[in-house]
Amino acid sequence: MLFGKKDQEESKYLDPIFGNPNEDADLPKYKLARKSMQADVAYRMVKDELEDEGNARQNLATFCQTYMEPEATQLMAETLEKNAIDKSEYPRTTEIENRCVNILADLWHAPKDGNYLGTSTVGSSEACMLGGLAMKFAWRKRAEKLGLDLNAHKPNLVISSSYQVCWEKFCTYWDIELREVPLDENDLSLNMDTVMDYVDEYTIGIVGIMGITYTGRYDNIKKLNDLVEEYNKHTDYKVYIHVDAASGGFYTPFVEPEIEWDFKLKNVVSINSSGHKYGLVYPGIGWVLWRDAKFVPQDLIFNVSYLGGEMPTMAINFSRSASQIIGQYYNFVRYGFDGYREIHQRTHEVAKYIIKEIKKTGRFKVVNGAQHLPILCYALKDDHAQEWNLYDLSDRLRMRGWQVPTYPMPDNLNNLIVQRIVCRADLGMNVAIEFIEDFKACLEELDHAHVLAHHSDEQKKTTYGFTH
Ligand SMILES: *Cc1c(COP(=O)(O)O)cnc(C)c1O
């Protein structure tokens, strides 16, 4: 967020909190206080400042982890000072990052004889930036060799219209045309009949999504790979696939190993995922891997010193704490393959229970009932008689502490208003049962409430905050 002066107001009066004279102070908003204050008081005051935020565990909007084990939290707190970029001072941390990359390369079937490489990032957004940049630079090298006039058109990136906002950022920041393929109306994912119509000599790559933010569905990466294979047979201007597996990258390998979506497919050259989504680490950690070093142009690699020598790095940021990387490694050590699988399967069962109960109410049509990821997406039935809409239901649920977003689908389907629930590992069955009780109570309350009439046109224009 960007902050400015108008966002803040000095409080008009002060009320000492717990009787300590130190607490008789206004928290600084515009400039530093002249005097310092006791650590315990400062702690209490800042902590209290955060008191009325939503309860993260009841936030069914976010994909991000809201629980880690005490041992993990302790380990991460104890390693906060480690700077991830300082490979020379922290060689063991560097080794741990390296092990995580190797583990992911194995999970994502990077060719064993190939020269894969990868790095941790702050989240999938940074990972997508790096994946996108590598595509742009590699495309330019290939196109230059073939004699293409690089100035005649902007390079473009092809992706379905249900992309996550980081791809729009990538295209804006690096001056690339974002070519949106309207969603397949039946499948609500990348349209395999039309996607290749958007590709030309200026296409830096095609992005497939494993875990579409809007619905939790998957693009059909295997089919996309076949289409690309066929396309590349007939042109010198080869095109490749980056898979945005922000959610799926840490889910599919454990729960749905039969799905082909990763480096097993020849034209998938890079993959990103968020360690802080189904990787089960607190935010922010992400990963990006390439199937082979040849897809990462040297211009993008910067060397930092490492044990008297040099080590290649690729990152948008420089200094940041390594504690998230260490948290990721802790989870790998602690859970192993079976642990991740069991946790995700339990989460999936919870999701199935919730959607079954929602369906039973008879009011909703299911857009995605945890078909793959434990993500639920539903709309009101077309013939619903009630006066209220999904936005009202979101508000009502919020009164009981639950955050469940309502929003329109992208472009060609924006008449479809949906509500989404992201089930995470810390949403246990008992809590899910409580949620369903609240959900039903909210329906009951709305049915008997006096809901102000909605003007349908106005309603369409309203896009409620929805960013992830
Ligand atoms: C969440 C998400 C992102 C952005 O990831 P962050 O880790 O939050 O930066 C990108 N793409 C998809 C598909 C996502 O779901």
UniProtKB/TrEMBL annotation:
Domain of life: Bacteria
Annotated catalysed reactions: L-glutamate + H(+) = 4-aminobutanoate + CO2
Top-level class of the enzyme under EC nomenclature: lyase
GO molecular function, one term: pyridoxal phosphate binding
Cofactor or coenzyme needed: pyridoxal 5'-phosphate
EC assignment: 4.1.1.15
Keyword hit for Ribonucleoprotein: no
Cited InterPro entries: Glutamate_decarboxylase (IPR010107), PyrdxlP-dep_de-COase (IPR002129), PyrdxlP-dep_Trfase (IPR015424), PyrdxlP-dep_Trfase_major (IPR015421)
Known function: Converts internalized glutamate to GABA and increases the internal pH. Involved in glutamate-dependent acid resistance.
Stated name of the protein: Glutamate decarboxylase
Organism, as annotated: Ligilactobacillus aviarius
Lineage, top ranks: Bacteria, Bacillati, Bacillota, Bacilli, Lactobacillales
